[in-house]
User: Fold these one by one.
Assistant:
Number 1:
Amino acid sequence: MGAVLVTGGAGYIGSHIVRRLLEEGRDVIVLDDLSEGHRAAVADGATLVEGDCGDERLLGEVLAGERVSWIVHMAASSLVGESIEDPAKYYDNNVAKGLALLDGARRAGVAGIVFSSSAAVYGDPADLPITEEQPAAPTNPYGETKIAFERALGWYRRAYGTRYASLRYFNAAGAHPSGGIGEDHARETHLIPRLLGALLRGGAPVPIFGEDYPTADGTCIRDYVHVVDLAEAHVLALAALESGRIDAGAFNLGNGEGFSVREVVDTVARVTGSQPPTTRAPRRPGDPAILVASSARAAKRLGYRPSIPRLEDIVATAWRWHREHPEGYGDRAR
Ligand code: UFG
C-alpha cells in the first residue's frame, strides 16, 4: 500500500487529514516546516519530518527512504489579502516549492498527488452554485498560484502519468469533534474563529467587511464546510485514485448552502449564548459577494457527502476547541 506523505500535515486542515489516514491504517509521514503548523497537532502515529517541501535534498531523502506511494500536498500560503500585498511569497511557496515537490515525486515514481486547491481559483463566479466547468478566473495571486499548480498537475499527468485530484475547498470551518485538534493561526483572519476569539478574549469588535453587497442583508455569502468532511474527501480521493476509478480531476468541496456574514454572527450568538461584538467596516479587497459550491461531481465520483452539514454543528465544534484551548496549541506568543 505504501506510505502517504502529507506536506503541511501539522496545519489546520492537514492535521485532520493525518488523523483520518491513520484511522484508515495508512503509514503517514508529515513534512512541515512548522511556520504555520504545530508539532502538537500531528497525531502520534505519524512521523513528523520538520522541513520545507521545496528542499530538494530533504525531499529526496524522504522519498528515497520510505515507500511513499501518494502525496497529499497541503503546504502553502493561503491568505488572499496577504497574497495581494506579497505575491512573491505566494509564487515561491505555492508554485516554485510545489513544482519542486511535483518533480521530486515524478522522479521517485510516486503514483499521484491529492492537492489542496481553493474556491479562490474561480474569482467572481459567473453562475451559482459554482461547478468545476466554470472557467478559472482568479482575482488575486493566491488563486493564481493554486490554478498554476493545478495546471502543472494536468501536464505532468499527460506526460508522466502522475495521477492527481485537485480538491477545491470552499470555507473550511469547525474542529475535530473529539476536541483534540482545531484551528490555531498566528494571525487569525477567518470569520468564525475571530468571532469566537472575540467572545473568549474580548478585545476589539470583529469588523463586518461590507454591508453593501448585492445580497439579502448586504453582507458576503460563503459556503462553510466542516474540516472533518474536507479530511474525509481526501481519503475518498486517494481511494478513487488508487483503485483507478479516477485518474485526474478537479473537485469542489462545499456544503452547497450559503450563509451571509450576518447569519454566521447570529449562529455564533445562538451556539455560544453570547452576542459577539461586531462593528461596521468597509469591504475587504478581493472578497467576492457570493461563493457557493456545487459539490455534485465530488458526490458522484468520489462518494463525498458531508457528515456535519449544519452551520450550528460546525460552529459548535469550533466553539468547543476554542473554549478548551484558549491559547490554541500554546506554542507561540499571541
Ligand atoms: N469577514 C468579516 N470580518 C472578518 C473576517 C471575515 O466580515 O473579520 C468576512 C469576509 O469578508 C468574508 C467572510 O467573512 O465575506 C468569510 O471570510 P474568511 O476570511 O473567513 O474566509 P474567505 O472567504 O475570505 O476565505 C476562504 C478561504 C481562502 C479562500 C477563499 C476563497 O480561507 O483560502 O475562501 O475566496 F481563498
Number 2:
Amino acid sequence: MFRSHTCGELTLDQVGKKVTLAGWVQKNRDKGFMIWVDLRDRYGITQLIFDEERTPKSIMDIAKSLGREFVIQVSGDVIERESKNEKILTGEIEILVTDLKILNSALLPPFTIENKTDGGEDLRMKFRYLDIRRNPVKENLIFRHKVTMSVRNYLSEKSFVEIETPYLIKSTPEGARDFVVPSRMNEGEFYALPQSPQTFKQLLMVGGMDKYFQIVKCFRDEDLRADRQPEFTQIDCEMAFVDQEDVLNTFEGMIHHLLEEFHGVSVGKFPVMNYDDAMRRYGNDKPDIRFGMEFGELNEVSQHRDFNVFNNSELVIGIAVPGGNSYSRKEIDQLIDWVKRPQVGALGMVYVRCNDDGSFKSSVDKFFDQQDLAQWATKTGAEPGDLICVLSGEKDKVRAQLSALRMELAERNGMRKPNEFAPLWVVDFPLLEWDEETQRYHAMHHPFTSPKHDQIDLLATDPASVKANAYDLVLNGNEIGGGSIRIHDSETQSMMFDYLGFTPEEAESQFGFLMNAFKYGAPPHGGIAFGLDRLVAILGGQETIRDFIAFPKNNSGRDIMIDAPSPIDEDQLDELHIKLKS
Ligand code: ASP
C-alpha cells in the first residue's frame, strides 16, 4: 500500500494511529536536532516531524537531504502538534516519522509552488505540470470538473443523450477558418477539424435522437484575440420538436441549476432583450446589465445648434457616469485620450459635468445652454454629481465606441462585481450580416439558422432587415451560449445557400448530405452551444479562460511546453503528399 491516507485528512481523531503518506516536499525546516517537513499532495498539507531522540539516525540523515518537490513516502505516528495551525484541517496534528523513502528526487522548480508564485506567465506555461501543483490552478481544474459533471448529470436527467461526433470531418462554414488535416491515404485530400458539431447534431435529429448533447472540443483557426483558444470546449446541444421558447426554457433551467449549485443564488426568470434594443441601449449584443449607464440618444436635443460635429453625425449618444463629476480635469482628459486610442477609435468626446446644485458645465458651453444640457441629462438619466460622456459619429461605430467606454468605466469603478450574476437572453438577431471585404451577405449565426417565418419574403427585397430565430445567452457581459432554430427542409436550406452566394453545385458538394437528409423526414429542431471554458471561468468568479484549462495555448496559439506547432520531417511530408514552398 502506497498510502493509508492523503495529506489533507488527518486530525486529532487519528492521534495514536500509524499512517503512511506520500507526496511532495513543500518545505523543509532543518533545526539540526529537529526537522519539520510540509508534505503536500492534491488534498492538502501534513506536517512531518523528525527528531534526533525519537527518529532513527538513518532516517534523520535522509530527511536532511530532502529538497523542495522531492517525492517521498513516509510512515509514522499521528501525534498532537504543539503549535497548532488553525488555517488548515490537518493543523492540529503532525506525523512523527519512523520510516522515510525517497521515491524520486527533484530539480529545484523554476518558480515557487505557492498560492502566490514568483513565476511569470510564460514560465508557468512552460512548466505547466508544476503550475498545476499550485492550489489556485489545481482548484480551478477541480472546479471545472465539478461544473462539467453537474452539466452532464443535469442534461442526462432531462433525457439528453451524450453522443460523440467525429473530429475528422469536412469543413462547416461557421465564420472562422478550419484547421485541416492532410489525408495520407487520399492524396491531395484533407479532413477538417470541426468548428462545432453543427451538421452532425442536426443529422442526429433526423436520426430521431431528439435530445442530444456533447461536451466537445471545437477548433477554430482564428486570428487570435486576447483570451481566445484555437481549441476550446463546448456544451453542444440540440433538440427536436421544439420552438425557440422550449430551447430557452430548457437551458435557462440548466444555468439556474449551475448558479444554485455553485453560488447558491437564485436569479429568477432571465430577462429577454431583442438584438435591436441591446444595440440601442448598450451598443453591444452582449450587454453587461449588472449596472446601468444605458445609452441616451441625443440627436433630437443636440443637432439644433451650430455644433457641426454633432450636426454632421448619424448618431449622437451619451452615458451618465455615476459620481463622475468628481473626476479632475486631468482624469477627464485621460478618458478622452482613452476613447481616442486606435483600439476604440473615437475622434473625441464631449462631456458635461452635472453639478450638485443642478447646474451643468460642459466642454461645449459655447454651443449649448443649460436647458439643452438638462435635456441631455434627462435622456441619459444623469443625476447631480454625474458626468455625461457624449460621442458622435456613424451609428454602428459610435455605439461600439461608447460601449467600450461604458465597460471600461464600469470596470474602473468596480461595478462589475464577480459574485453578482445577471444572465440575459438576447434574441431576434439579424439573419445576415454584410461583409465589407467580400461585398456579400454572410449568415450572422450560421447558414442553418432559420429566418423568422413571416420574414422569408423580405429576403428578396430587404435582406438586411430579416431577423432570425437565433438567440444568445449573455452572462455578465459575456456571450456564454448561442444557438438557433434550424431550417429543416431542403428547399429553404438551398434557398438560403443561394442567398449566401453559393452556386447550386457548391451547395450540393459541401452540404448535399444535409439537404438530402432533410428529404427523409427531418423533424423541426433547434439547439444551442455553450462555451464551457468561459462558463466555468465566470462561475469561478474570473474571466480568464486560460486559468481553467489544464494545458492552454498562449496568445499566439502556441503550446510552449510541448513546442507546438512544429515542423515535421521530410518523410512525413512525403507520405502526406505535401511539398513545402521552400
Ligand atoms: N454551432 C453553433 C456554434 O458553435 C451553436 C449552435 O447553433 O448550436 O456557435
